[in-house]
Amino acid sequence: MNRRTTLNSYRERIQRVVDYLWENPERECTAMELADIAHFSHWHFHRIYHELAGETVYQTVRRVRLHRAATRLLRTDDSMEQIAASAHYGSVEAFTRAFGVAYGVTPARFRAERRRASRPNQPLPQKKEYPMDYKVEVIDLPRLTLGTIAHQGDYNGIGQVFDKLFVVAQTHQLITPDTRAFGIFYDDPYTVEESNLRSEAGITVTEAQARDAGLTVREIGGGPHAVLTHVGSYAELDKPYQWLYGEWLPTSGHEAADSAPFEEYPNDPRETPASELITRVYLPLQG
């Protein structure tokens, strides 16, 4: 399968989701349901959708519901309370604010002026252009056992969890020259509220070592993985993720496996300038 065919396949699958959202604006769909419609792993669906659709699923749903609300404003005599509720807003005030942002006028004024509620463009945007470019290597990664500590919140705050992890590791004499450090990231930061983002900081250990140290046992790897190497500040890691999901994956001929992406940190941020930090981003692939 060539790059163009693969990209078209990814776009068609995302388009299925967009069509479904337009046809079912009242439904509260789970990420799992939408991923199934597109035949993508739920671990990666939101990132792929964001890059190819140019907006998050939540933004598409909000746009579709506001369009339906605008149509009802023009075609029915339903009350503002009814229309706000049908658009899934808890109050007329919240609906009015959201409608004003999208349409530039209040719902009442929109209705009074009988503006035409033209349907926003449904087709996906043209292929996004990325100013950056990276090299990706597909490798067969052996299965690795980690001892981890969970983190919830801003992904940039996982450094504090790593500090805690290394104190535990040093106390239990788990650090060796072969120790590797990984971060596992379960949620798409464009879709999930920052306070609810889930991640884990981990190091390679045996299962027994992890349990003795009071760490969570987690396994990663085992099969083909795309590996992207980023050099620079951890704060800039959103760029390689955008490129990996929006440019490389849809044209690679590969499908993402049903497990979360993770990162490896070969050098020590306490001793390395931010511009020289190395991060390997691993994307699990179907075998």
UniProtKB/TrEMBL annotation:
Name residues in a coiled coil: none
Q: Which GO terms describe its molecular function?
A: DNA-binding transcription factor activity; sequence-specific DNA binding
**Which residues are in the HTH araC/xylS-type domain?**
15-113
UniProt superkingdom: Bacteria
Instruction: Give the UniProt keywords, A-Z.
Output: Transcription, Transcription regulation
Q: Which Pfam families match?
A: GyrI-like, HTH_18
The name of this protein is AraC family transcriptional regulator
The opening ranks of the lineage are: Bacteria, Pseudomonadati, Pseudomonadota, Gammaproteobacteria, Oceanospirillales
